[in-house]
Design a protein that fits this description.
By secondary structure, this protein is an all-alpha fold. It contains 13 helices and no strands.
Length: 290
């Protein structure tokens, strides 16, 4: 996409009656030379795939390593039988996010949003939201365009790659995109949509990418739940009128700088962090003998 900053998206939305979705859609049509109908049709396919990755999730399925599987089902049962601390909606967000991330680990179809490792965050908030508020597929797709525009700016100004910027670039970016989507769906102004994005991303700054045994499983799957809940919290704070003191584009730039300062050992190489704990090393050794 042609946006260089989040402010650029806000500025261009002024030509679409303040509608970020229309601004991002217009940019996509121009950038790829497609029709409006074609662009929206592709986005609807991605939303359908997100829902399918959750609906077709199998609670009994385990990943090839045996490290992932069953946790979403545990949360689902817990939320239905217990007086949870988080409440029903947040629990639904958590187990949906984990279910999609488990589907990824078990080689099911997912949507990289923005990456495979963070694939559970967006559906983790959008699926429960759509069910709670009975929102149409078309309206959810509008929010996905908003997220896509933000993701493209993050990718240009910083990174969405764990190997380049640590997990802040994956789960952090996904949380920022999801928070903005929620704020958009709740009717917030373009400025407050971007504010929600900033609040979510700030909470993830410095997050290491330290996968155990080099697999996108531990701690990646559970981090999807944390990222999704973070998105909800950030959207609520923004809707309450809480403002990020550091402007959204500067937050993205800070994330990029932090990523460049991170040692390679905590950028997807599995040479530090959780990957080299005693248990992490034992798991890695077991995986080498499989």
């Amino acid at each position: 996409m042609g946006f260089k900053s989040l402010q650029d998206i806000i500025d261009k939305s002024r030509y679409t009656d303040g509608n970020i979705f229309e601004a991002v859609l217009s940019d996509d049509i121009s950038e790829r030379g497609v029709t409006r109908e074609s662009s929206i049709r592709e986005m609807l396919k991605m939303w359908t795939a997100m829902k399918s990755s959750y609906q077709k999730h199998e609670g009994s399925l385990k990943s090839a390593s045996g490290l992932v599987g069953g946790d979403s089902e545990k949360l689902k049962v817990y939320s239905g039988e217990s007086d949870t601390l988080s409440g029903g909606f947040i629990c639904k967000v958590m187990y949906t996010a984990i279910a999609v991330a488990e589907s990824n680990a078990c080689m099911k179809c997912i949507v990289a949003s923005p990456t495979a490792g963070s694939c559970g965050v967006m559906p983790g908030v959008l699926i429960p939201y759509a069910e709670r508020y009975e929102i149409s597929n078309e309206k959810i797709c509008e929010a996905m365009y908003v997220s896509a525009g933000i993701g493209s700016v993050i990718a240009q100004r910083a990174s969405i790659s764990g190997a380049q910027g640590g997990c802040q670039a994956e789960i952090g970016s996904a949380a920022a995109m999801a928070a903005a989507a929620l704020a958009y769906l709740m009717g917030q102004s373009p400025e407050m949509v971007m504010n929600a994005c900033a609040l979510a991303l700030k909470n993830m700054l410095g997050l290491a990418c330290d996968p155990v045994a080099g697999l996108v499983e531990v701690p990646c799957v559970k981090r999807n739940a944390s990222g999704a809940v973070n998105a909800v919290i950030a959207a609520d704070m923004s809707m309450a009128g809480i403002i990020s003191v550091i402007p959204p584009d500067e937050v993205i730039d800070a994330m990029g700088e932090i990523g460049s300062l991170m040692p390679s050992s905590i950028k997807e190489t599995s040479k530090a962090g959780l990957a080299v704990t005693d248990t992490g090393r034992k798991i890695a050794a077991c995986q080498r003998h499989l």
